Amino acid sequence: MRGITHARWAAGAVAVALAATGCGGGSSDSGGGSGSGGGVLSSSWGDPQNPLEPANTNEVQGGKVLDMIFRGLVRYNPKTAKAENMIAQSIDTKDSQNFTIKLKDGWTFSNGEKVTARSFVDAWNYGASLKNNQKNAYFFGYIDGYDKVHPESGKQSADTLSGLKVVDDHTFTVKLNQKFSGFPVTLGYAAFAPLPQTFFTDHAAWLNKPVGDGPYTIESYTKGSQMQLKKWTGYKGPDAAQNDGVTLKVYTDNNTAYTDLMAGNLDLVDDIPASQLKNVKSDLGDRYINTPAGIIQTLAFPFYDKNWNTSGAQKVRTGLSMAIDRKQITQTIFNNTRTPATDWTSPVLGSAGGYQSGLCGKACDYNPTEAKKLINEGGGLPGGQVKISYNADTGSHRDWVNAVCNSINNALGNDKACVGNPIGTFADFRNQIGQHKMTGPFRAGWQMDYPLIQDFLQPLYYTDASSNDGKWSNKQFDQLVDQANAETDISKAVSTFQKAEGVVRDNMAAIPLWYQNGSAGYSQRLSNVALNPFSVPVYNEIKVS
Fold first, then answer.
1. 277: left (phi over 0), alpha (psi -120 to 50) or beta
2. Of 8, 85, 94, 235, which has the most beta carbons under 10 Å away?
């Protein structure tokens, strides 16, 4: 599944110089207008890393735009994260491997083209094809024929996925290469969005001004400045925009965005700076949002380093986990915008999605005495010291890494047992991880793509999975994941995934630190402002006075 280099990293976890992506043309009017939506709002944003192709957008900023201009087969409920049919009339299967998908009638793209079964099949074939170099191609990996259109090495031997068949304008079938009961849940992810024929017939023009089937259309984009989106009055979906449009303003520093919000120059900031958390409630009152999101922060380990892959290292990792006072750190460093983790998923999944509070058990409880005992029993800290690596460019990680180390040092009675290991930029940090140069634990963050326990486990811990940065491998875990994927009953699949998560716990494959909340603040002009479980503003529901 998803590689962490392909990941939508958690808010505040990325500070990357984003590459150019062009969308031009359209109106240059950035002012708020009148109408049924009550005006245009402005919101903080960052330039997307890649052109806004659904299968090539894998970071939060680009994802915000795709969520505004596209609708797919499934949409995740903005309050509960539950997967609900949108364009899909039905997604049926008898064996969790062969699916028949029927579409609702009446859906169109903003250029007037009808949304048909071909719109999805062509888009998925494009996204999966090796020659198109789409970052989200792996999302189509379950579909039969993926190994032909996107081989691990060599040239592709097919241009289309053999598992996709168009039956008629409103029906297509999907054959998977293995059973996967959770497949319908994944279809709300942007990579599975439909595409109009103009995407293929005039690709350059589409990239310059993307056309989708969602409640907004892109009016203009100036890299490094802003993107203007306008309410699409022809949108027939049930979630039409309640405002006239959104101007996304580019900020490279969220402190500047917060200052502009307070000065009345910006309507919405969806990432409150850590430096403002102590005063944000007094600044904004009820206009401050702090809600759970599908994000978890962990400490990963380099299992390719023999020092962390010994028979006693499991006790050392568990001891380190018990030496971390999560409650104190989340209160003092994060001002309660984080919640101590008690499993390896997220509470926003709910029990139906696989979250199980307390699954980590005593291993996630602060217990200095037991921590010291386990570390000693495990042979002690490799090299006598733990260095926690993190990217230093955002400035947001140093404080919590220092706090974690202080907690470990206090528990072990050694002020040099743990130190932070800052690594230049996010790119430098990721490069060293990708080159397997880590020698100790390193910061890791995960933001869900879809609300299912499988997305928190398989990409991160399955042998050779795309986001298994530490190269952990466990046959029992892999077997349970395979078994869960093959279940035809989603509730049984979730239960089996939880057994797999128990293997992660028993081996302390990574130390769960805390669940991350989404935070936002908004101006007095706005109402009905909320963040969805992915920590993204529900722009279409915002009202402007």
1. alpha
2. 8
Q: How far apart are CA 261 and CA 243, in angstroms?
A: 19
402 C-beta neighbours (distance < 10 Å), count: 16
Length of the chain, please? 545
Q: Is the pLDDT of residue 8 over 70?
A: no
Mean pLDDT over 249-270 rounds to 94
Could you tell me which of 68, 220, 85, 183 has the C-alpha nearest to residue 486? 183
Burial 266-304 (b: 16+ CB within 10 A, else e): bbbbbbbbbebbeebeeebeebbbbbbbbbbbbbbbbbe
For residue 530, the SS3 value is coil
pLDDT at 23 over 90: no
Q: Is the pLDDT of residue 2 over 80?
A: no
Of 58, 43, 225, 242, residue with least CA distance to 66 = 58
Contacting residues for 9 by C-beta, under 8 A, at least 6 apart:
59, 60, 445, 447
| Angle between helix 453-461 and 490-507 (nearest 10) | 40
Residues 6+ apart with CB under 8 A from 479: none
Task: In whole angstroms, give the CA distance from residue 434 to residue 438.
Answer: 9
Q: How far apart are CA 489 and CA 178, in angstroms?
A: 15
To which residue do tokens 């499934």 refer? 74
Long-range contacts of 495-502 (CB under 8 A, 24+ apart): 497/354, 497/453, 497/454, 497/457, 498/354, 498/356, 498/359, 498/453, 500/457, 501/343, 501/344, 501/345, 501/354, 501/356, 501/359, 501/453, 501/457, 502/359
**Please, what is the Cα angle at 320 between 319 and 322, to 5 degrees?**
65
Mean pLDDT over all residues of the chain? Answer: 91
